[in-house]
Amino acid sequence: MNTVIANGKPVEASVPCTLEEFLVAQGFIPRSVVVEHNGEAVPPSEFRSRVLNAGDRIEIVRVVAGG
To answer: pLDDT by residue (tens digit) across 8-44?
Structure first.
């Protein structure tokens, strides 16, 4: 286990792993979030191929629909 900085807080994670694996492990539904990885917006089509490593910084925002 190593640490990833998620939304400004250290989170223990089994890295390297894909962004999708990390999101699922943290209880997120990948299709319902927007993610920035090391300052770069990540399209959902890249969640399965984008690799997280120790020390990476990610920002996760839940998408909420409503009217």
So the answer is: 999 999 999 999 999 999 999 999 999 999 999 999 9
47: which 2 tokens? Answer: 């969640």
CB-CB contact of 22 with 49 (8 Å): no
CA–CA dist 21, 13 (Å, integer): 10
- What whole-number distance in Å separates Cα of residue 19 and Cα of residue 57? 11
Report d(CA 39, CA 14) in Å as an integer.
21
Taking the C-alpha atoms of residue 42 and residue 50, their distance in angstroms, rounded to an integer, is 8
- All structural domains of the chain: 2-62 (3.10.20.30)
The model's pTM is 0.91
